[in-house]
Amino acid sequence: MRRSAEDITVNLQYLRVFLTVAEHEHITRASEELILSQPAVTKTIQHLEQEVGLELIERHGRRIALTHAGHVLHNYARRVFAVEREMEEALSALRDVDAGEVTVAASTTTGVYLLPPIVARYHARYPKVTLNITILNSHEIVEETLNWNLDFGLVEGDASALPQGLRVEVFAHDELVLVVSPKHRWRGLPAILPTDLRDGQLLMREQGSGIREVIEHALLLHDVQMRPLLTVPDNEAIKQMV
Fold this sequence. Notes:
With 242 residues, the chain is α/β, with parallel strands linked by helices. The chain has helices at residues 12-24, 27-34, 38-52, 68-95, 108-113, 115-125, 138-146, 210-220, 235-241, and strands spanning 57-60, 63-66, 100-106, 129-135, 152-154, 203-204, 230-231.
């Protein structure tokens, strides 16, 4: 007999243990992070499976794999504890808005061109707040934010394409333009067609870069498959190579 939604009550401590196991896909590593014994972790997962009436994990040697129900619960567990963390931070901010620590990551472009003046203004307003800043690509920032390792991140790209579980606010709009060498045959042209890029020898950012994802998506709308000549993880290096 299937249990109704009204009959299911999930213990948040069990859910926290499950989330850690799901993130590591390993009972031993999860138990080390939680400072619990492996049998205690296993027993907790069993209790949770009894609560929800579904099998959540499958064992494969020393590792585990999530069942379909496990993947569904994993997604909701992330969102539950993201809200919990947001609540704690909001209450903490109400207690002390002038001190604390903020961990933020920015993609290469935003980190170089947008973040410095923002940091300067923020530090002038909140001099006692410590800012921990990391430069990563957009994909890495999304993953680190979902894993609660960042308070927030600045990325480029299509905001609607970001995964669930994130609070997203559009910060600014920008324009991407093609640049060429002064000796290139396209120099001086007012515009080119997307199809002209089929044979273009492009220098592009690495996979995971928000800028690259935007360009690839725009070209695919015109049935253009991009084939970069070189992949370079640094905007300044690309400028010098051009």
